[in-house]
Specification:
Largest sheet: 7 strands, mixed
Number of strands: 23
Strand order of the largest sheet: 1-2-6-5-3-4-7
Strand content: 15-25%
Low-confidence stretches: none
Number of helices: 15
Distance between the termini: 26 Å
Length: 463
């Protein structure tokens, strides 16, 4: 089955994600462009380091070329934001990225990027889905496509790097003296910050930057459970900052100088302060329904509007396109910024953290301690349950009236089921990218958060 979810179509390699289905999707994309774009059409394609990603990318390109669509394919694996950047700044009609982002190694996927450089919304993916199987996929050999000047393979990274150099205050950042450890999780985020900075003042060491399509047996998602080696090294060695990028480098997490994992629920509001207070960027803050309550507190303190969306960066992309937000992010680490592209970018987030440190003349640990002192600690926890273990729909769940003695004051059904008390919440949601049901919780204590997730899992298994 071919189906677009929260962000693109993802499936298991050699089962549903195979060359035949990639051709079917590519032909539908070509048919969509022929119906909606007048005159010459052009598409840019990138790919990650997963098994056969390069080959899948070329297969998609040759179907497009056979339909008379000029197609540029990256000459190397690249972060997803590189493709999004090219869509906007080089005026492509669409972008295609072959990646399954943070999913396990057995998955691959295909994301569609809009001409504005954002994630395709449901309206666009729905139109593409409606064209599946309408026409038999066309095909052209690579040499023939190149000879007819329909296919070009080139470096997509140079102008991306040049843009980032102008996006942040390099003069201020280059004054920092830091030792940083970057875990790229065997993904595509290798060395980009180093190329942007061009300085010896900030020494960057890398972890897991070799090619390994199995990701070392760990999902390339920047969450604490996948970062045991990173956290051990950070605690043993004197690094000032640790940075983690996911498989296609559009998500970020941090590790402080003491070896403590810092997730996007802290990074997003921290960068919101920098964008709105330090950079004077006008606009609100966007978060998804599974975002931390601390984001609400920061928005209130800054006098900024808060926008809450269903899960999926495509919804936040829409807020950027409407010029409503200065910054927007999701709980898994994807953060986007006004003045760039309506898309998440882990490398850009990393650079802006460095810029914040430089502008405020504080190390990362100091920024965190001041943040916690002002807004308090919020402990965020999540877990996953295989869909096959859930017999009924989440809507059939019997909901309690309280959570560990705290009255449920309201229920948010924007995307899933979120049970909210005065100072904690518990949420259930079926993933749009993996065959799992996610259970999330947040509270003022770590133990309570863990207890809430345990309770939530019992409720799901009882279905």
């Amino acid at each position: 089955m071919i189906k677009f979810g929260t962000d693109g179509w993802r499936a298991v390699i050699a089962e549903d994600f195979n060359f035949e289905n990639v051709r079917i999707v590519s032909q539908a994309i070509a048919d969509h462009l022929k119906c909606t774009v007048k005159g010459a059409k052009k598409v840019v394609i990138g790919y990650d380091r997963r098994f056969l990603s390069k080959e899948f990318a070329m297969e998609a390109a040759l179907v497009l070329c056979a339909n008379g669509i000029k197609t540029v394919v990256s000459d190397k694996d690249v972060p997803t934001p590189v493709v999004s950047f090219h869509c906007r700044h080089k005026k492509y009609d669409l972008g295609i990225m072959i990646t399954a982002s943070h999913n396990p190694a057995r998955f691959n996927g295909l994301k569609i990027k809009t001409p504005e450089g954002g994630s395709a919304d449901q309206a666009l993916t729905g139109k593409v889905e409606s064209l599946f199987y309408k026409n038999k996929p066309k095909y052209i050999e690579q040499k023939a496509a190149e000879k007819e000047k329909l296919l070009e393979t080139k470096d997509l990274t140079d102008i991306y790097i040049q843009f980032l150099k102008g996006f942040v205050d390099l003069r201020s950042i280059r004054k920092l003296k830091l030792k940083v450890l970057v875990d790229v999780m065997y993904g595509t985020g290798d060395c980009f910050v180093e190329k942007v900075l061009g300085t010896d003042q900030i020494k960057i060491d890398y972890l897991h930057n070799e090619f390994n399509p199995s990701f070392g047996g760990i999902n390339p998602e920047p969450i604490e459970v996948n970062l045991k080696e990173m956290l051990t090294i950070m605690k043993k060695n004197k690094y000032d900052l640790g940075v983690v990028l996911d498989g296609d480098a559009d998500r970020v997490a941090m590790v402080d100088g003491r070896g403590n994992y810092i997730n996007a629920q802290v990074i997003l509001p921290l960068l919101a302060i920098h964008m709105i207070k330090n950079r004077k960027v006008k606009g609100g803050i966007g978060k998804t329904v599974v975002g931390s309550d601390v984001i609400d507190k920061v928005a209130l303190s800054l006098g900024a509007s808060l926008y809450e969306t269903p899960v999926g960066f495509k919804y936040l992309s829409g807020l950027f396109k409407e010029d409503l937000i200065a910054i927007g992010g999701e709980e898994a680490g994807g953060i986007g910024f006004k003045g760039y592209i309506p898309e998440r970018d882990g490398t850009a987030a990393f650079l802006l953290i460095l810029e914040m440190m430089a502008k405020e003349n504080k190390n990362f640990n100091k920024l965190l301690s001041e943040f916690y002192k002002k807004y308090g600690r919020h402990y965020y926890t999540r877990s996953a349950i295989p869909v096959k273990s859930v017999k009924k729909s989440l809507s059939d769940m019997k909901l309690p009236k309280s959570l560990y003695g705290k009255k449920i004051e309201r229920i948010n059904a924007l995307d899933g089921i979120k049970l909210i008390t005065k100072d904690s919440w518990l949420m259930f949601r079926k993933s749009g990218t993996e065959p799992i049901v996610r259970v999330y919780a947040e509270s003022k204590s770590k133990k309570e958060g863990q207890n809430l997730v345990a309770l939530g899992k019992k409720m799901v298994y009882a279905l």
